[in-house]
Amino acid sequence: MAAEDAAADALGDLKDLKLLDLDLIALSGESLGCVTVTAAVMGRELVQEARVRLGNPRGIVRLLHGTQTLSESTPMGKQVTAGARIQCLVVAISVEQERNVVHAVLRGVVPGEDGWQVWECVESLAEVEDLSSIALPSGLRSLAFSSRFNQSLENANFPSGLTRIVFGDAFNQPLENVVFPESLKSIEFGRDFNQRLAARVPLPRGLQHAVSFLFKQGITPVTFPEGLKSITFGDAFNQSLVGAQFPDNLQSITFGRDFNQSLVNVQFPTGLQTLAFGRDFIRSLVNVQFPSGLQNLALGIRFNLSLVNVQFPSGLRSITFSVYFNMSLEDVVFPDGLLHLTFGDFFNQSLEHTVLPDSLQSITFGRYFDQSMRRVALPSGLKSLTFGDFFSQSMEDVALPAGLESLTFGYRFNYSLARVALPDGLQSLAFGYSYNRSFKHVRPPAGLRQIRLARGSSLSLAGMKLPPNVEVLRE
Q1: Structural domain boundaries of the chain?
Q2: pTM for the full predicted model
Q3: What is the dihedral of CA 80, 81, 86, 92, to 10 degrees?
Q4: Which residue positions in the chain have pLDDT lower than 70?
């Protein structure tokens, strides 16, 4: 009897080792090629092969033999014979299906038939709290951890196509032995992250954007990826940049609240286009070597130092001042190509002797600016002029540029425009809440297209002969 059982087992083993040549066919009828498997191979393995040959579609792959749907949990030898034609059908995944599978897997439930395919197709995960018990989906593109996540990533296996990682506030683990995928383009650290990014931390070569909130380590030993395009430092960063080696392709640097280091002798990358400072930056810009291609400069809340003798780069297009800046611009040399000038709330200096470049297209004043514009030489190329809430000066005898398209007054402005020479090209005219002057003797510009009034304003346009198709908005 024992001999007969042994013989039967041996025969079964031989059957399991039998090779099956199977033809995989797409729904369109296109051949996906022949695959050879043993009779003992489970249906799931063939589904995995079919997914690869179909280009890993974002859907559930079902295998059909005639009218029969093949089971993933049954050996192929018990479902088909050699030479069988297997049709590969791709079924779309519903939003509800994906949501249910993600919820189950993140709770530690192992996905069953269909479920594992849904999981592999997931492109974005959020609020991930534990990596120790799950294998990340092969199709994952974006990964965001929960605010409590603080596990080591030394043994993490990130998908090869992952492009974005966002860490929560609690994450503060060393990165020396972590292997990030080369596909990674953006990485964002939370508030508690404060690990050194020394040369031994292998940042991906394809990384383009990096953000860190409370990082306060020195960066002179850091080797940044050559493809890095933007870096944002967090509120606690306040380290010297002298000796830092930024990649030449870096386009944007943004500093947080605490940064207040001298920029003299700092070597900025040649490709830098945007430089933005945080609240506490109060350092002179005299003798700072800005890269010639810098286009946008934004100064922080507390910056209030003279700009006389500052050498702005010739390519600068925009300067933005924040709240406290209130220095005279009388002897400041602005670059000839400057397009946009934006002042913060406290700026209230006369511009009578200021040379504004003719290239300027927009000037925006903050809340407290209240200086006469009568003797101000406004740029010939100016298209937009915006005053803040406290501006309350007559516009009579003000030489508005012929090309001005937008003129905006704030809350307190309440002077008649009857004797103001509004340029014919003016398209938009806006008034604040307090304006209640008659328009009876105002000559509207021929090109006027829009008048904007403050919501709740009682201003009447009666008596004003408006051009056709002028839109009146209350906002």
Answers
A1: 15-90, 94-207
A2: 0.76
A3: 10
A4: 1-16, 198-201, 213-217, 221
The per-residue pLDDT for range 255-286, each reduced to its tens digit, is 999 999 999 999 999 999 999 999 999 999 99
Out of 3.40.50.1980, 3.40.1740.10, 3.10.20.90, 3.40.47.10, the CATH code matching 15-90 is 3.10.20.90
Q: Which two tokens stand for residue 221?
A: 């030993």
